[in-house]
Amino acid sequence: GENVEQHPSTLSVQEGDSAVIKCTYSDSASNYFPWYKQELGKRPQLIIDIRSNVGEKKDQRIAVTLNKTAKHFSLHITETQPEDSAVYFCAASKGYSTLTFGKGTMLLVSP
Amino acid sequence: SQTIHQWPATLVQPVGSPLSLECTVEGTSNPNLYWYRQAAGRGLQLLFYSVGIGQISSEVPQNLSASRPQDRQFILSSKKLLLSDSGFYLCAWSGYWTPGSGNTIYFGEGSWLTVV
Predict the structure, then answer these.
(1) H or E segment at B78?
(2) Whether the Cβ atoms of residue B64 and residue B47 lie closer than 8 Å to each other
(3) Burial degree of B80 (CB within 10 A; 0-12, 13-18, 19+)
(4) Element (H or E) spanning A56, and its range?
(5) pLDDT at position A94, please?
(6) What is the spatial distance between Cα B114 and Cα A61, in angstroms, rounded to a whole number?
């Protein structure tokens, strides 16, 4: 089955810096890649997703890039703010299969 | 719009006691339903998923069970809780898949279970 590796497990940045979280997947047939943000004590919420027919997608300060050849995708957050502090999960799926999640990255943004 | 409700939000149960967590989805029909568990500071572990009434797939062996008595109702149960069952339990749903869509999962607010 699919295997998703996520790095780093913890990322500390200063407010205003950029943050990048990277994920790799094993199944070349995977075609859907969402990212979830989970604030402390709350549920994971979808923040952005990308499909395999697109190489990059942006939504304000958040962007996701996909490299199908290398089988990796990344989340980019620019101009980080303290409220960006949370655990971020990447995931992958193909067709109607269930999502396979990475283990998560704890992002800490210091004022 | 679709909403998902999950309860109770918090519970403290003694070892060996039973468990019942309930989840309902509104605003959609025939959703795929999921139960995830998240131990403290850890990732999302898929426990069960269901593609229809009475259809349950188990991802990991454990002393938990799931049932789907109605189209938009999903229940997580245990007859005898273990200390290791403590964690944050999340119900989730996804809609009908089409080739142009992705299997986006939407989570409920979660239930904090502490087994003492």
Answers:
(1) strand B73-78
(2) yes
(3) exposed
(4) strand A56-59
(5) 87
(6) 37
Query: Which three-class secondary structure state does DSSP give residue A63?
Result: strand
Q: Structure tokens of B28?
A: 């959609």
What residues of chain A lie within 8 A of the CB of B107, using their CB? Answer: 43-45
Q: Point out the residues of chain B with pLDDT beneath 70.
A: 61, 97-102
Please tell me which residue of chain A has the smallest CA distance to B45: A101
Distances (CA, A) of B16 to B19, B82, B85: 9, 6, 11
Q: CA-CA distance, B29 to B11, in Å (whole number)?
A: 29
Q: What is the DSSP letter of A111?
A: -
Q: Do B109 and A43 touch (CB under 8 A)?
A: yes
A47-69, pLDDT tens digit by residue?
999 998 889 999 999 999 999 99
